[in-house]
Specification:
single chain; about 260 residues; alpha/beta; 3-stranded antiparallel sheet; about 35% helix; globular
Length: about 260
């Protein structure tokens, strides 16, 4: 197990349990207690947790792993979802991409499409995600429009009045939206109201709204609503989606695609 994998596992355990003790963590990961202490010290230096005498606790009352530590979760499902979403995009479209691990994979899948290798532009990509803009800006065939705003270190997303002002002046063909939750009755949602406001405006500025989310995020609720279910055109998810939840989405007018 690499250091990055250990850190990912430790942070996942911490989120699940709320606190960690060195000895049980060392046993769970199959490494020495000294290694766990060193890992916890380094994670504390990055303000990802708070060290205690015998282990660690969550950093603050509202905890969310930074994007770079969430990329390996359900990686296979996200890979299939991203390829399916990318295939829905027509050359020459203006697309909007929110931040998140799945939408980042969608951006990479778009960059790998042979039919999008040339064009003037092949795609126009509007995003408030710094990491997505950074990955795509080296593709000269893509026109990248990055909103202004204040950056959230957990998600690399720009939010706030500056971002809203820019986005409100633009029109988008397809919005690809990442979510923390999507429930047939309660709609699409995220944990943070500032991100929800940006995502909502992107959906309002788009002709077509596509939600890209693995099945663990479906049929559940989150704090800040993005849009109602009937504002979503297509849901792309994995085969783990239960038939009953799929039927509820379809009854609400959402096309469900399982990748």
């Amino acid at each position: 197990m690499t250091r990055k994998e250990r850190w990912q596992t430790l942070l996942d355990l911490l989120v699940e349990r709320g606190e960690l003790e060195v000895e049980p963590a060392a046993e769970a990961l199959g490494v020495s207690a000294a290694t766990i202490r060193r890992d916890l010290d380094q994670l504390a230096e990055q303000q990802l947790l708070v060290r205690t005498r015998g282990g660690a606790v969550l950093h603050g009352v509202s905890y969310e792993l930074p994007l770079r530590y969430r990329t390996s979760r359900r990686a296979a499902e996200k890979g299939r979802i991203s390829e399916t979403v990318a295939a829905l995009i027509v050359p020459g479209e203006v697309i909007g991409l929110t931040g998140g691990t799945t939408t980042t994979e969608v951006a990479r899948a778009l960059a790998a499409r042979p039919d999008l290798a040339t064009g003037s532009p092949a795609l126009t990509v509007v995003t408030n995600a710094l990491n997505i803009a950074g990955e795509l800006v080296i593709r000269p065939q893509f026109k990248i429009v990055l909103t202004g705003g204040v950056a959230r270190p957990q998600s690399y997303e720009l939010t706030g009045p500056l971002a809203m002002e820019v986005l409100g002046q633009l029109s988008v063909d397809t919005a690809v939206v990442g979510v923390d939750a999507f429930d047939p009755a309660d709609g699409a949602a995220t944990r943070h109201e500032d991100e929800a406001a940006m995502n909502r405006l992107l959906c309002e500025r788009a002709r077509r709204v596509v939600i890209a989310a693995d099945s663990s995020k479906l049929g559940v609720r989150a704090f800040a609503r993005i849009v109602a279910t009937d504002a979503v055109d297509i849901l792309v998810t994995d085969t783990g989606l239960s038939p009953s939840v799929a039927e509820a989405f379809e009854a609400a007018g959402v096309e469900v695609i399982r990748a």
